[in-house]
Specification:
Strand order of the largest sheet: 1-2
Structural class: mainly alpha
Radius of gyration: 26 Å
Helix content: over 70%
Number of helices: 3
């Protein structure tokens, strides 16, 4: 004897199923938006980090002509500037991700 199966529910005829499907789609859309924003922020900040670290070394001769507090800019960036920029990137990332995560949490609460 075959096992009994549950009657199939049609989302068009069952308002609870249709509501659940809409809620699930909304949650998936919010999650996709959150990760798209997170990836974009990460890519931009990694690009800034690469620009700071790589370009400082690559253009060291050209940057040596510019002085900051009496030191050549290339030396300043290698000694302190790159570290300060990386610290600022980390601080900005933490601040912005806290905002993005809070917005995502609010969206999930509204969808629930």
């Amino acid at each position: 004897m075959p096992p009994e199966s549950a009657p199939e529910s049609n989302p068009a005829s069952d308002p609870n199923a249709a509501s659940g499907l809409r809620r699930q789609r909304l949650l998936l859309a919010e999650r996709a938006l959150h990760w798209r924003r997170t990836r974009r922020l990460t890519a931009i900040l990694l690009g800034l980090w690469l620009l700071t670290v790589f370009c400082t070394v690559y253009f060291a001769r050209e940057l040596a002509r510019i002085t900051v507090f009496g030191w050549p800019l290339s030396f300043y960036m290698a000694a302190q500037g790159a570290s300060l920029v990386c610290l600022a990137i980390i601080g900005f990332y933490a601040w912005r991700m806290r905002q993005l995560d809070a917005a995502y949490s609010r969206a999930l609460e509204q969808a629930a």
